[in-house]
Structures are given as C-alpha cells and as structure tokens.
Elongation factor 4 (Cephaloticoccus primus), 598 residues
Amino acid sequence: MEIAHTRNFCIIAHVDHGKTTLSDRLLEHTNTVAQRVLTDQHLDSMDLERERGITIKSHPVTMLYPSKNGTTYKLNLMDTPGHVDFSYEVSRSLAACEGALLLIDSAQGVEAQTVANAHLAFGQNLKVIPVINKIDLPGANLDLCLSQLEDILTIPAEEAILASGKAGIGIEEILEAVVERVPPPRWSDHAHTRALVFDSLYDSYRGVIAYVRVFSGEVKPGDAMLLMSNGNKSEVKEVGIFTPKMEKAQKLAAGDVGYLVSNIKDTSEIKTGDTITLAQRPATEMLPGYQEVRPMVFCGLYPVDSSDYEKLKAAMGRLRLNDAAFVFASESSVALGFGFRCGFLGLLHMEIIQERIRREHDVDIISTYPSVVYHVVTDDGALREVDNPVNLPDPGAVREIREPTIKAAIHIPNESMGDIFALIMEKRGTIDHTDTLDANRIMLTCTLPLNEILVDFNDRLKSITRGYGSMDYELGEYRQAELVKMEILINAEPVDAFASIVHREKAEGKGRELCGRLAEIIPPQMFKVAIQAAIGGKIIARDNVKEMRKDVTAKCYGGDISRKRKLLDKQKEGKKKMKQFGRVSIPSDAFIKVLKTN
Ligand code: GTP
C-alpha cells in the first residue's frame, strides 16, 4: 500500500474519559476485530490494567479503512498510557504518530491530563483532532467543553467531533477525520533506514519483541540492525504487524507500525525511544527525543516471610524483563532481614509492581517508606546521589542537600481553593500562577518537592475536592533545602527501616508520630524500652514501649507437662522471627504493622 494512504494516530485523554472504549469501537467498525471478541475491552490486556482501568502498556493496532473518498487507508492506532508516571512512554508513542484524537469526557470537561497530553501532542507537531466523548450521558455539557477547547487548549471549537464510544455515535466521522486531517507519514524521504522503538515486550521463547515505527527505508528478517544509542548490533529474526494479534510480515516499510524480533534477549538492551538503523548503511542522526529513563522513586521491598526471599528475587527478575524502567538490587535491613532496594518511575509504577509481585507471583511483601533521589554535596565538594536515607553521610560531612521538585498543574473547583492552598503550603509548595478554567474551576500551576507528594498528596487532593480535583506534573529542577536524616532508635539502637530524610521543620512532628505508633504496636516488654527519634544524635521525640512481665505458661494451671512444653516450643519458634535491639527482642511483624499503617 502506498505510504500516502497510511495514517498513524493515537488517542490521548484524561483517565477514564473513554479511550479504551472508543478504540474498541474503531476496531469493530473497521472489522479488525469481530464484535463478539470485543465483549471485554480489547486493548487493555493485563488483568491489573483492567481492574484499575489504567492503560499501562501501549498496544498498537493496524486497521484497514475504506474511506468515503473511495480509497482504502491503512490506519495504525497507538494506545497510549494516560498516567504521568508513564509520560516518557506517552511521548514516544506520540512521536510514532502524525495525529492524535484528543478525547474529552463531555460530563467532566477538560482536566489536568487533557491539558498535559494536548501539550505533549503539540510538542510533537501532531495534528490534534478534538473529540467530545460520552455525549450520551445525561450530564453532558457540550457548550462548556467547546468553550474550554478554545479557551484552555486554543483549538477552534468547530474542529470538534461529538461522539460516544459506548453508544457508537460519531465513529465514522472520527475515521474520516483521521483520513482527512492527519498528514501521511513524515520524514519518509530520509536516505537511510530509521525506526523508532516506542515500546518492548519480553517473550520467553522469542526474547525481546520491540514495537517500532519505521520512518524511512525498510527492515526485514536477515537484516543486520544497529541500535543508535549504544551501537549494539543484532540480527533481525522476524517482523510483523498487530491485527491486533502479532502477524508475521515480509518487511516493515516507511510509515509502518509493527514489531521486530532480533536476537536481543534483555529488554534493558533495547530502550524505548532508541532508533534502529541498518548496520551496512547506518543513518548518522537518531530520531529526535531519546532520553535515558531513570527511576525517580525508591523503596525497600522485603518478603514478609523470610523464606520467600528467593521466590521474590525470581519474581522481580521476571518483572524486570518486561519493564526496563524497574530496577532492583539486594539489600538487608536490621529490622526486616534480606530484601531489595527498588527504583520506580513514580508512585503508580511502584504500586503496580508491588501488586503484581503479590498477585501474579504470590509473594507477600512489605515496603519501606518511599524516597526520592537526593543530591548530596559533601564537604569535599563532591556530589553524591542518595536514594536510601540510611546512606546519607553524617550531618558533619554534608555541605548541602538538594531535592527534586515537580511542576504541577492542579485543576480544582473554586470552592476548594482555600483548602488546596493550605495543602500546598503544608507540603512546602509555592503557587506560581492561577488560571480560571471556567465559572467553577481554576488551574493552579505550582512547584512542589517530589518527596512531599509521595505519600498522601493525591488522596488528600481528591478528598478535599470530593473527587473533582486532578493533577498532572512534570519533573522540575533540584533545589537546596533544609533536609536532615531522622533516625528512630529502639533501646538506643537505630532501626534502619524507619530512617527518613525530612525537612528540619517537620522532623519533630513526624518523629513524635512515628515513636507513638511504634510504642503502640510493639508488644509490651519485660522492662522499660525507649523509642526515640533523633537527628544527628540529638533526640527530638520520645515514647516508651509498655512494660509487662509475661509468663507464657501462666495460663496452664494444673500440671499438664506436655501442654506446657508445647507452649514453650511455640515461644521458641516465635523467637526465631524476633529482632534483637540490645537486650530487647521485637517481632518483625511489629515493624511490618507500622509500615503497613502508613
Ligand atoms: P484509562 O485507560 O483508565 O485512561 O480509561 P479509558 O480512557 O480507556 O476509559 P474507558 O474506555 O475504560 O472508559 C471509562 C469508563 O467510561 C467506563 O466505565 C466506560 O464504560 C465508560 N464510557 C466509555 N465511553 C463511554 C461513552 O461514550 N458513554 C458513556 N456513558 N460511558 C462511557
């Protein structure tokens, strides 16, 4: 098929604005997938994705569409992940297209991710086609959506298509608009073969399967390919397209979207955003926009039952094969035993990996408090990256600590303004400007330390705004801040799992809270045990574990010796899971409980 008859596009939207439902409708309308197969949403294949309704991995699909102008077009649809943690993946999927359908839920209007995604699409020079979706809803407010399109996104309202994925309204019109408005594949006249890797998948038989968009030239089995970011060479074994199943093809040519299998066996060797060229006649310039993806949020993950260590390690290895953005290395903790330090793109990414370990690999795990990556300038002027509070050098040896910040766009109803301002202040943020979205909503652009939004920011934003608030962010710069390492001591010994890096002004409150919680959860001890929070050896908060004399055999009146022995054995067994702090033994599950109640 001629390249002039190919269109590559994607659908971008705020979470839940109906992207998957509409994609399915397009597949059905073009007879790509029979209707009965579509009973369940077709593009989101992972269980967890379905449950959370969040698209994590992007799956492209090739459709054939006989247009009203008499020509049949090849339409490649890219499904993009909607969440900020995956914004680099979104931007690479967009880079593989020439156009984007921008969905707006007619009952919700423009939201934080609508704006963020629209800007990503403009940034890639895509033709944006606005679609006001779910118009079948009784609460649809078309006038509002159309005026928001013009005011917030500066897209002329007359370009909008009114649609409903669920009721099947506007589907033909959308397909026609893709054909008419989205330009044919760009950069196809470049002299050398260049293909963009926009995702990859690990298959236990075939190794890494790269999802690619060929911009110029062609690639076929037997070709020697070259990855431009690192110069690695490999042989192409198979290429094909998604229908949506993988279907072998003889070659992928300029404008095509499909998959490529080579003898690369590890996903970390073929990175999203990289450019594939041919080893014999290599291109000299990569396709634009490649970045190394770096984990931003770290935490320790430990098996609740220490005998699950190997099982956990194997589970992580398998997850990593499919997700080069997830990193892990072994570490050990006094309180929690042997486990792993893990790095993630963001909080959602962290939650998803933890959930998959529990669910797909059946290992019960506990995570320590998440931490960001700090830049620590030591006395000799050297810069160190610290992702685990335990590794922060002594206060005496630190000249300066810098923390990562984010630039956030927060959409809220007017009436929540006061409470949200207070929340942002509490989280050490600053409001850079305020824009009115419509009569009822405003958008705040603010700068916040990443560390402060890790735990409960989004939950509190949602609860203050009764679910109507939404946030999107991008990473900002590193800034110097008055940060200190706070340690928790039990019987004067530090408990590594509770060490944290906190702002000096917040240390005391946080220390008191943590000591109180530990005092409540740690079982009564034979003698007085102090729980203290300290900064650089100086105690800032203190609490005590309850005292109690406990005789496990006390309940056994009478002289049943076998029953007594049983109880003593049971106690001995219990001791194995105890952690020793000086003269004090504390069961590991007490720590686990404290970490869980966070
Ligand atoms: P994410 O993958 O989480 O970004 O969600 P999504 O944008 O893919 O949305 P999805 O298609 O999963 O739809 C979200 C919810 O809206 C589901 O409960 C759908 O049934 C519903 N929905 C989708 N399209 C329509 C529509 O046109 N009309 C109505 N009334 N509901 C719709």
